[in-house]
Amino acid sequence: IAVLQELRAALERKEFRLLFQPVFSRDLRLVALEALVRWEHPLRGLLPPSEFISICEESGLIVELGRRVLHEAAHHYAFLVPQGLGHVRLSVNVSAMQFAHGLLDDVRRVVEEFDLPFGALELELTESVIVDDPERAAQVMVALAELGVTIASAIADFGVGYSSLRYLKRLPIHRLKIDRSFVNDLESDESDRSICEAVIALARTLRLGVVAEGVESIFQRDWLRTSGAGELQGYLFAKPVSFAAATSAEPEPS
Ligand code: G
Ligand code: G
After folding, report:
1. N or C: which end of the chain has fewer CB within 10 A?
2. Would 50 be classed as within a structural domain?
3. Helix/strand/coil (H, E, C) string of 105-170?
4. EAL domain: from which residue to which, for each copy (predicted)?
């Protein structure tokens, strides 16, 4: 409860800030920046989401925090254009509760306020968003797509069930994310390689993009590229950093 009060105060005092982690195309050009929230705690320093997101979700505070994150991320689009990076997407994580509480209005507002072109904003959704209330999720997602907002989701979140795959086909999802838990042991774990191949094949069939997360080694990079993952993100290329650092990030030449 004390933490909750502290979090409310932190929102008031604007202690949350965003870092951005670059995402690169297979030929190592910058294609997206994923916004990742941090709490700049006055005493404890920069805190990662694991320290506060679940409390925000349980308390409903995530709706307001998520709204701030969305606004702050969208605000950065204007700074991409003069750097010749107008094609780079801003990618924002959205929790299920935020999705269910006014997300569409919030998105509409930032798209208007910052005059975001089609494809400039991407939302990363988790499965619970869809599974909790598929019909409503579908309506919101279609409306988001009409606003020019793309949607990414991790395939693992869907499980491999038949119904999940049906959602995938029916819903306007633009990109599948390969979770870093499948990328971690690519070199040693044959079943992880099979899972990655399956996700890539599925994406190809459904004409979706693929972004692999958590790329830390040259082996992982080269294997994923060769296997057809279109976009790569991970510490091998860049960590979450300030916006200025993220837009000037150069992955090491291959
Ligand atoms: O930044 P870091 O890699 O520590 O993030 C860990 C997790 O926290 C991410 O995988 C993501 O799920 C979650 N997260 C980060 N930023 C946000 C945010 O702005 N909103 C929501 N809902 N989750 C976030
Ligand atoms: O699920 P989501 O995309 O929100 O995950 C973002 C989180 O993953 C952030 O906490 C970020 O720091 C972390 N992350 C990003 N790239 C890597 C990586 O290459 N290795 C590890 N271990 N974590 C990563």
Report:
1. N
2. yes
3. HHHHHHHHHCCCCCCCEEEEECHHHHHHCHHHHHHHHHHHHHCCCEEEEEHHHHCCCHHHHHHHHH
4. 1-254
Q: Confirm whether 251 is domain-assigned.
A: no
Report the separation in Å between the CA atom of 232 and the middle of ligand 2, taken as the mean of its atom positions.
Answer: 12
ipTM: 0.95
Q: How many domains does the chain have?
A: 1
Residues spanned by the domain of 127:
2-244
* Beta carbon of 95 within 6 Å of any ligand 1 atom: yes
111 lines ligand 1 (CB under 6 A): no
Which atom of ligand 1 is least distant from the CA of 18?
19
Express each pLDDT in 74-107 by its tens digit: 999 999 999 999 999 999 999 999 999 999 999 9
Q: 185 C-alpha to center of ligand 1: Å?
A: 22
pTM higher than 0.90 for the full model? yes
What CATH number corresponds to the domain at position 110?
3.20.20.450
8-35 tens-digit pLDDT:
999 999 999 999 999 999 999 999 999 9
Q: Which ligand is nearest to the CA of 51?
A: 1
